[in-house]
Amino acid sequence: MDWVNKTYSQSETSVFLSSEEFSRAERSRSVDFQRLRHKLTGFDRVTVLCFLRPQWRFLQSIYLEVSRSRSPPRLPDLVQEAIETGRCQGLYMRYGELMRRLRIAFAPEEIALVDFETVKTKKNGILAAALSSCGINEPPADLRVVKQGHSNKSPHALSQWAANLLAEPYVASESLRSATQTVLKNHRPSCVLTRAEIAQLNAAFAEDNAGLIASQREVQPSFGLTDTALPDDCMHREDVSIEHWLHIGKTLARPMVATG
């Protein structure tokens, strides 16, 4: 950071720092925001940009991301962890807590909150919102979408969940995910959380979210935290029946039967 400050602070360059480490809630692993702010003193303007989404959507995203590298905790345990501690796998779920930490180091006007669910539907999506924070309201003409916009696309939620259960305590293999997708994907949207769990999470964080919105509107009047209703045909975890599991078993067994 000293090098960044020394090299760019006196220039006309905008420096964009992005890291998942900024979201860490555990004191032993979290970024020292006061030290970070001190190392940016040479810049004439500093903005902390936070993209926020409803907690239940964030929890599902965390679950699917964890599934890439290890066997994730069971979902009821993650929901309980989030409600009881305000955190999930070491990340902030209670956004007001994150804001309080940020405001110790940064002035209120240096912190900008972005409603993830709104900007993701806009032209150029999240990238456009990030560039706008740097004063670039029109993306460069040579800006190109990478991998059709699916650089970090999450897997089909319920298929991943079913594969995780079958693979415990190991990481689900591609062949296992393929088998569960054959049965569960069916071109329908899906959600790993039950309807009751979504309601529980929404209720648990409603007060904190309302306080965060009210506080942020003092410096950012347009800020809100929205949630798009799931489609009526969305398949939730409780919709996976014994027939689905039997079908998955048959799908997995078929190659062995055919060659037996």
Write up what this structure looks like.
It contains eleven helices and six strands. It is mainly α and about 260 residues long. A hairpin with a 2-residue loop joins strand 2 (about 85-90) and strand 3 (about 90). Helix 4 runs parallel beside helix 10 (about 195-215), helix 8 (about 155-165) crosses helix 9 and helix 9 (about 175-185) crosses helix 11 (about 240-260). The protein is elongated and about 70 Å long. The termini are far apart.
Oligomer: single chain
Q: Percent of residues in helical segments?
A: 40-55%
Total strand segments: 6
| End-to-end separation | 61 Å
Beta-strand percent range? 5-15%
Strand order of the largest sheet: 1-4
Structural class: mainly alpha
Q: What is the overall shape?
A: elongated
Order of helices and strands: HHEHHEEHEHHHHEHEH
State Rg: 21 Å
Main β-sheet description = 2 strands, parallel
Low-confidence stretches: none
